[in-house]
Amino acid sequence: MKWNDKKTSEPNRTSQNSDGTYSVHSEYKLPGRFFSHPDSVVRVSWKHDSMEDWESRELSVHDKDFPWKANVQDITVPNLLIGKAAVLKCEVSNVFPDVLTVKWLKKEKGGQDLFPVVHSQTYNISELRPEKQKDKTFTYKLCLKFKPSISTEEGAEFICRVEHPTLEVPAEKSTGPLTIKGDHPLPSPVLGLHTTSPLL
Fold first, then answer.
1. In a 10 Å sphere around its CB, with 0-12 CB exposed, 13-18 middle and 19+ buried, how is residue 126 labelled?
2. Number of folded domains that form the chain
3. Which intervals hold domain Ig-like (predicted)?
4. How many Å apart are CA 82 and CA 153, to the nearest integer?
5. pLDDT for residue 12
6. Under a CB-based contact definition with an 8 Å cutoff, are residues 26 and 44 in contact?
7. How confident is the model at residue 154, as a pLDDT?
8. Closest by alpha carbon to 144, among 168, 167, 171, 173?
9. Is 154 exposed, middle or buried (0-12, 13-18, 19+ CB in 10 A)?
């Protein structure tokens, strides 16, 4: 057996089946960032005396059988109150390899153009950090913190755009048009007592 036209340094494990045939198990260890480039391909080839020629199988990040596909979660929109800090979270799970680009974009009310959201006094964007999971994949989270305003956020949309080698096109999740609510205290009820004296 060969991996990418090279013999593996690990010995193959052979086991006999109940019908008298044999099964061969072969492993090939790759650098963690091998699949960082979308054109990277792993090819395993095998040849037996009963075969006329080599046979092979390939695996790349675009194959349906590729076990890791970056999964972008829906954005949960909290209650947005005027002047009260709010946080939008963009979470991406099942990431491998750990090469990821995540951006926040904004679409103005009634518009179609997307504008990049940058870290500023208005918009606080957290640092993008990977969290390694038990299955060796990574989870990323990018938070956007801001204080909603009727003039700038009412009816606008925030979009999280994710780029990863396993995605043929960038994946996007949107908040949908935002609704900003006022944060004014309700008027206190006024209790009054009105009596009418009987006419004498």
1. middle
2. 2
3. 67-179
4. 10
5. 82
6. yes
7. 94
8. 173
9. middle
Closest CA to 143 of 129, 157, 164: 129
Strand order in the sheet with 171-174: 114-116, 101-107, 157-163, 171-174
Helices (H), 57-160: 150-153
Query: 149: domain range?
Result: 71-174
pLDDT, tens only, 3-28: 888 877 677 888 989 998 989 888 88
pLDDT single digits (tens) 179-193: 998 755 445 455 544
Give yes or no: residues 56 and 77 share one domain. Answer: no
For residues 86 and 124, state if they share a domain. Answer: yes
Q: With contact defined as beta carbons under 8 Å apart, do 90 and 173 qualify? A: yes
- pTM of this prediction? 0.76
Residue 78 in any domain: the answer is: yes
* 180 inside domain: no
